[in-house]
Design a protein that fits this description.
Layout: E1 17-19, H1 27-33, E2 38-42, H2 45-49, H3 52-61, E3 66-70, H4 79-91, E4 96-101, H5 103-118, H6 122-125, E5 143-147, E6 159-164, E7 169-174, E8 182-185, H7 195-213, H8 238-260, H9 265-284, H10 289-299, H11 318-323, H12 326-333, H13 338-349, H14 360-371, H15 388-396, H16 399-402, H17 411-420
Parallel strand pairs: 1-8, 2-3, 2-4, 4-5, 5-8
Antiparallel strand pairs: 6-7
Helix pairs in contact: 1-3, 4-5, 7-8, 7-9, 8-9, 8-13, 10-15, 12-14, 13-14, 15-17
This protein binds fe (ii) ion.
The site of fe (ii) ion (FE2) has 6 residues, from helix 7 and helix 11.
């Protein structure tokens, strides 16, 4: 027992997963045993075009289950796009949900399920200070998530991320009940992902794992008064560490291969599994500085048109918005946990490092960024030094995440990190 009033408890709540090439063929069997008879199948136009959605629909219908398809999930969801899906969900009288697609489709399904089950306005549930921080009073209807990108780990996490354009900020809804009830992870579904999408998604995986591993340990937080107040992101703990470590190992070993050759089934499979492993790790421990900075980087301007992404609206791909500040963030956090930073570096390169310092992990990350064609830094995504204050403001709004950093982060620290991140090489 900690005598200092600090937290003594952590939890690990993971989505039960089914993994392997061909696993998505069992989607009908899985949803049937979840006791569902009428499904809202949430997807996006790209996945429909790739003929994945009709196949999934067929497999579910073959089990005698009614299916209605919602295929208008946006790559970067907004409160409005969530609302449209939630209205459809409310009117449809569904008793279960299946999400097929990237993080955006899965997040859209989480929010549709939330509103269909408990009603209310989306903004009421959004994390404060932007939203009301309302908590769903009881579990949602069953949700089965089938990711088609190897990145967000959304099938394993308790959050849904959304863009609030009028406040020019991205934020989220997070609660343990938002976690999908089951996930089917099938690497064959990622084969058509363009290399830029693979790069961004894979770097997101690496950041989830590294930030989780390098988050403030759960027992350095003050103990909560009642279990309902224990945050979903609890800080580093021995169980989350295992998942994060394995994901780092996979990211270091397989991401370059998956980007270089999309047909490399072994590399695709490892990144897909790595995304879920990291999702379980960060669903428990949490992410902090790079993800906090990523929200304003992606939310403040909508000018960057990334290669390999749909041309319907400009956006900064999530993984790229995160990775650009990771080297400077981990240079800043190094002195809080030198040994753990060294271990993250070792996992990424797959060998022992004798003499590590604050630049070791940043240099390894920069090499990985170069090798997978990531942007050089924040400037390439459309910002200059004059906009650092605005970016800092946006990042400071993510206190939910920043409290998980292994040391205190001030506005000045964030400004320095963003300045150093203008060009990483
Ligand atoms: Fe992420």
């Amino acid at each position: 027992m900690a005598a200092n009033g600090n937290e003594t408890i952590f939890t690990l709540e993971a989505t039960p997963l089914k993994y392997g090439p061909g696993a998505s063929e069992e989607v009908g069997w899985e949803i049937k045993r979840m006791g569902v008879s009428r499904v809202m199948l949430i997807s996006d136009p790209g996945i429909v075009k790739a003929n994945i959605t009709p196949r999934i629909q067929e497999l579910i219908e073959a089990e005698g289950i009614e299916v209605e398809v919602w295929d208008r999930s946006r790559v970067e969801p907004t409160a409005d796009s969530f609302q449209e899906a939630a209205d459809f969900a409310k009117e449809g009288n569904f008793d279960g949900f299946v999400a097929i697609g990237g993080g955006s489709s899965i997040d859209t399904a989480k929010v549709s399920d939330l509103i269909a089950t408990h009603g209310g306005e989306i903004i009421d549930y959004v994390n404060p200070p932007i939203g009301g921080g309302k908590k769903p009073p009881s579990p949602l209807k069953p949700l089965l998530a089938v990711p088609t990108t190897a990145g967000t780990g959304a099938e394993a996490t308790t959050v849904a991320i959304l863009d609030i354009p009028d406040q020019r900020v991205k934020t989220g809804i997070s609660h343990a009940y938002m976690r999908p009830d089951r996930g089917i992870v099938d690497p064959l579904l990622t084969m058509s992902m363009p290399s830029e999408v693979t790069s961004s998604c894979g770097l997101d995986v690496v950041c989830h794992a590294a930030e989780s591993y390098l988050s403030k340990p759960y027992d350095e937080r003050p103990k909560v008064d009642n279990p309902d107040e224990r945050p979903p992101y609890q800080g580093a703990n021995p169980v989350a560490d295992m998942w994060s470590a394995k994901a780092l190992e996979y990211g270091g070993k397989y991401l370059r291969r998956a980007v270089k050759d999309g047909e490399d089934v072994e590399a695709r499979g490892a990144m897909m599994l790595g995304a879920s492993l990291a999702g379980i790790g960060f669903g428990s421990a949490g992410v902090h500085i790079p993800h906090s900075c990523a929200y304003p980087i992606a939310g403040l301007k909508h000018e960057y048109q990334p290669p390999g992404y749909p041309l319907d609206h400009p956006l900064v791909p999530h993984g790229w918005s995160v990775i650009v500040t990771a080297p400077a963030a981990f240079r800043f956090t190094y002195d809080a946990q030198p040994e753990r930073h060294r271990y993250v570096a070792e996992l990424l390169i797959g060998e022992k490092i004798e003499n590590a310092d604050e630049n070791t992990l940043p240099e390894i990350l920069i090499q990985l960024m170069k090798d997978v064609g990531a942007p050089r830094g924040v400037r390439e995504l459309g910002y200059d030094e004059g906009e650092i204050d605005q970016l800092v403001d946006g990042a400071m709004k993510q206190q939910r995440l920043l409290v998980g950093a292994p040391k205190e982060v001030t506005e000045e620290d964030l400004a320095n990190i963003l300045r150093e991140s203008m060009e990483n090489w």
